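Entry type: protein chain
Record version: 2
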Amino acid sequence: MSFKQVWSDEIHQDSRYGIKGEILVNHKSKYQEIIIIKTKNNGNALMLDGCWMTSDKEEKYYHECLVHPALSSYEDPAKILIIGGGDGGTARECLKYKKVSSIDLVEIDKDVIDLSKKYLKNTGQEAWKDIRLKIHICDGMEWVKEIHNNYYDIILVDCSDPKEHSNVLFSLSFYRECKRILKQNGIFATQSESPEAFKDAHLNIINSVKKVFSIQSTLYSCVPIYPSGIWSWTFASDNKHDFLSKKYKNIETIEKSCEIWNLNYQSGGFKMMPNKILKVLDE
């Protein structure tokens, strides 16, 4: 049976970022509009409230860059917290590390998880069946408030752009709670928007993280499906040592499993801050 091919666009600042394909899902959850599209060149793609989240073809640009700079620089990443991550890609990458003993995935919208399991199987893959992964359907801020001090080794924030239900995940109060529940040498990582398409939000995230943690660094790379193509991830810690150097012993095995990330890619990404962003941060 042949279905109608249509264009689906994310519209941002008078620009359109579109993919042509068959609409498999057009669903309104309690929190947002969820659209999943089957495309010829990108596989299945997920859109939330009119914004592209991921696609089968491009998701590794995002998930590998969020996960591996943090976990590869931690000798024994045992307890992981993922805020968001309902498509399963971040959990999948974390589970490559044999020393990971438990992952708490906290996602506010159960429908995103359920639909991702059905239509984005290439993203979550076998992660959903791994006994180390525990799913919690609740608000991320409320979750971190309930966790006791010095609990997690790594916290990864894999959330959508700032909006009604996610604004708190970009706040100083949230970052402070994350710092409280991290171990002393723990690492915090968050997607930090585009320096081009979302410059103000990008700068706000970097400045806010800097106020909470002793050291921070931002990695830049591309996610072609996103507005402007360029994206960023910000990493932070109170560990005074170089927390973004190789510490995980079997990192060569992790590198071989990746399509985008490796240590050289990471090294270059941390040196790519656009000068217009650097100038504002130095003011």
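Comment: The first strand starts at residue 6 and ends at 12.
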